[in-house]
Amino acid sequence: MKGSDVTVSGISKSFGAFKALKGVSLEIKKGEFFSLLGPSGCGKTTLLRVIAGFEEPDSGIVGIDGRDVSGLPPDKRRCNTVFQSYALFPHLTVFENVAFPLRLKRLPNRLVRELVMKHLSLVQLEGHAEKRPSMLSGGQKQRVAIARALINEPSVLLLDEPLSALDAKLRQRMLVELDSIHDKVGITFIYVTHDQQEALSVSDRIAVMDQGLVLQIGSPQQIYENPASDFVARFIGETNIFAGVVASREGPFATVECEGLGPLLVEANGEAPLGARVSVAVRPEKIRIAAESPGARPELNVLSGVVEEPIYSGFQTKYIIHLAGGGSVTVFRQHANWSEGVPDLKWKDEVYLSWSARDSVVVESDAVANDEVVNGAARPPAP
């Protein structure tokens, strides 16, 4: 397999009093599409720049294929970077922008032309070779930047929010193209983004970051279905978070007494000892909504409430349900066929919500303020 393993061990970096990275460690596998995901200011771009060699860490080691490259300049690391701003030369043609790294190496013109056209073909721009950047769309400029980065045959390609300047539809199309390019070249991609859908769509694995720390590393499915903390659950997609105390345990299940909801059955698998304060995450699409009660069944949570807000968005309707106990729950109902295209549940309708205990994920509580409100109900005070 092409590409290189990248290891980050105990990397810390401060800018004055601000600690951008706090002892970050992670391992990226050869040929992997690995994403650094988090909100603005979480440290993901700083970490990328440390890997690239543009920033010197205060402490820690960056390794590529087992070799410590911490003291090496960027051009000695076999890493190339694609920036959000494209960084193209406006006075040069597309051909010459891509050829620029090869011109520095003084390669023969015949070889330069062969390699440039090969990489322009890779990014589907062979018909635009003689245009200047001002004649290109945002997506085309980004593809030129990717071709220029790849022509040096790096073992690691670093991408710093490369699609954030594009509109939503173009961003989706470029994501598919970027994934296809990764499949073709097979090298290691390290991708920085604050967009959860981008990371979930293309990554082999994701590191979720916040305040200079890596909170969880896993596949998109692991991150989405089994978030390790309140923050990860909230940041990755939309979710319901219920706070409460473990009232009883039976086998792999726990009953959590939640303010505003009452008792919820959750699959805990040893994560929630009796009396522990926990947060429970339930994704809105896991919850079924109906005008009639589904009846009592083992492992099934059933709540009743009133439709507070139906929000129709074509492929689905989002319902915010007000519960009798004072809390609220968000539910997604997919429109899988034509008959579901017109919502049959309306404002102020009484409804029943149900979901399996196996779809309730126990997440550890983190960064909770006493007055924080979760799904319409304040967290119960600490015992």
Keywords:
383 residues, alpha+beta, Rossmann fold, OB fold (Dihydrolipoamide Acetyltransferase, E2P), six-stranded mixed β-sheet, five-stranded antiparallel β-sheet, 8 helices, elongated
- Top-tier CATH class of the largest domain: Alpha Beta
Mean pLDDT: 88
Radius of gyration: 25 Å
Q: What's the architecture of the largest domain, going by CATH?
A: 3-Layer(aba) Sandwich
| Beta strand count | 22
| Backbone shape | elongated
CATH superfamily of the largest domain: P-loop containing nucleotide triphosphate hydrolases
Which percent bin holds the helix content? 10-25%
Largest sheet, order of strands side by side? 6-7-8-3-9-10
How would you describe this protein?
The chain has 383 residues and is an alpha+beta fold. It folds into two domains: 220 residues, Rossmann fold; 140 residues, Beta Barrel (OB fold (Dihydrolipoamide Acetyltransferase, E2P)). It contains eight helices and 22 strands. Helix 2 crosses helix 3 and helix 2 runs parallel beside helix 4. The chain is elongated and about 75 Å long. The termini are far apart.
